[in-house]
Amino acid sequence: MAGEEPPAAVAADGEQPLVCPGCAREHPPSERFCKACGMPLVHMSGAAEQTVSERQSKARKIKPQYSEGKLVKVAGAQNGAEAEMIQGLLLEEGIPSMAQRSLGADVPDFLVAGRRDILVPESGAEAAREALAWDEALAWEGPVGS
């Protein structure tokens, strides 16, 4: 009807407000992270239950304080599988990362073979290096029983 206000779930400009999946507070569409708890914001949906994609699940683990600045190299991997493992370790610490083929590698990007550089935002570099550091006392020294 004429004169009715748009529903609360839709802003005047037609955009849905964002909601924090952690504390359920609403935020304007211009925000990315919840100011109260730091979680990445998601679009409010009409359905009570929202399915979460793998990408959304990963984004929820990222700590905003580790997502600022230019990308810097923090580690190297022998191949794509090792790079994915390192990225998984960093994600568990809340550190976003990406892998790219190392300079000078003679293997195409789409193959799992070939060295990869692990890059993280500058604000998360120190935490990433700490998360990936090996404690000398725990380092593998050889086969058991030798």
Please state how the strands of the largest beta sheet are arranged side by side: 2-1-3
Q: Major sheet: size, sense and barrel closure? A: 3 strands, antiparallel
Strand content: 15-25%
CATH class of the largest domain: Alpha Beta
The N- to C-terminal Cα distance equals 82 Å
The H-and-E topology, N to C, reads as EEEHEHEEH
* Oligomer class: single chain
Content-based structural category: alpha+beta
How helical, in percent, are the residues?
A: 10-25%
Q: What would you say this structure looks like, in words?
A:
Strand 1 and strand 2 form a beta hairpin. It is elongated, with a radius of gyration of 21 Å. By secondary structure, it is of the alpha+beta class. Helix content is 20%, strand content 16%. It has a three-stranded antiparallel beta sheet with strand order 2-1-3, with no helix packed on it. The protein has two domains: 13-47; 64-132, Alpha-Beta Plaits, CATH 3.30.70.
Entry keywords:
about 150 residues; alpha+beta; Alpha-Beta Plaits; 2 domains; 6 strands; about 15% strand
Explain briefly what this protein structure is.
This protein is of the alpha+beta class and 146 residues long. It has helices at 54-61, 80-92, 125-132; strands at 18-19, 26-27, 42-43, 71-77, 98-101, 116-121. The model is unreliable at 1-11 (pLDDT under 50).
Walk me through the topology.
Elements: E1 18-19, E2 26-27, E3 42-43, H1 54-61, E4 71-77, H2 80-92, E5 98-101, E6 116-121, H3 125-132
Antiparallel strand pairs: 1-2, 1-3, 4-6, 5-6
